[in-house]
Amino acid sequence: MPEITPPSVNAWTFNYSPGIKRYKISRTAAIESLSDSGGSKHEISTNVTNEFLSLVPTPDSGISFTAVVDTFSTTTPGLIGSVLAIQLPVQVTGFLTGHALTISSDSSTGNKCNPVSSALASDLHSLLTPFPTELSPGMAWRDSVDSSGCQAAIPTTSRTISSYVVSGEANYEGQSVLIVQRSDSVQAHGEGAQQQHSIKLDANGTGNAVYYLDTKDGRILRITTGQELSLTITTSTRSQLFKQSSKQDFRLVP
Fold first, then answer.
1. Is residue 75 predicted with pLDDT exceeding 90?
2. pLDDT tens digits, residue range 38-51?
3. What are the structural domain ranges in the chain?
4. How far is CA 60 from the centre of its chain?
């Protein structure tokens, strides 16, 4: 996190500006098996995603958005999930109000466990966080998000409880930004099938994020996140324990 500087004002106003924004998201996830008698197995997957956000104001002071993924380049080992075929682009739509984000599913994916749609929905909860309109140094608040997604090729539902605090101003690439920090508590559960065998997933853990807000132009310039999860995958024959550590870096690009 950049060094916090003395604030130039007592409070800041942040509203998402309309228009099209493009983000490049880099992800790294390390997965370790804790159940193998012959010693733990450790694999690392990486991913780069390009996402476009189109924001349009609505008459009720909210924002209508369209989000599109046109690049999803990943290396995924097979430790806890098979590699699924990916069809691009993937698009979702929805609305952002002052209190909540509503995401509509991409009709082309149906009820399938689609890793691209799952990643995009998760990203939107960060890129379109419903911040209070006025932010002041040391200000803190909490919210919670219930969402559906895809973990290890298993359809999952998760609940994330987040705590936010406004850290203050900092210099980012020659520009003054407002730094907001977030800490998360995560729980998830999923049920599905692999090779006609039922499978269940339970996960819990913690996360964190740092937001770089351009309050002048109403944009998020960057977000860095980290997450630590403990996962249990249960089949009819056994249960396996895993540890997953992941990092993401969202950057606004021209």
1. no
2. 556 788 889 999 99
3. 17-253
4. 27
Please work out, in degrees rounded to the nearest 5, the angle formed at the alpha carbon of residue 95 by the alpha carbons of 89 and 98.
140
Two structure tokens written together for 205: 């853990």
Tokens of 124: 């939107």
C-alpha 238/C-alpha 187 separation (Å) is 21
Return the closest-CA partner of residue 226 out of 238, 244, 242.
244
Give the angle 88-203-249 at the CA atoms, nearest 5°.
50
Is 232 a residue whose pLDDT tops 70? yes
Structure tokens at 81: 């999930």
Q: Which residue has the tokens 């359809």?
A: 155
For residue 86, give the amino acid letter: I
Asked if 150 and 113 touch (Cβ cutoff 8 Å), the reply is yes
CA neighbor of 224 nearest in space, from 244, 243, 252, 202: 252
CA-angle at 124, arms to 119 and 128, nearest 5°: 165
- As a whole number, mean pLDDT of residues 44-67 equals 93
Q: Are strands 219-234 and 197-214 parallel, antiparallel or unpaired?
A: antiparallel
CA distance 69 to 251: 15
Match 């003054």 to its residue by tokens.
176
Tens digits of per-residue pLDDT, 118-144?
889 999 999 999 999 899 999 999 999
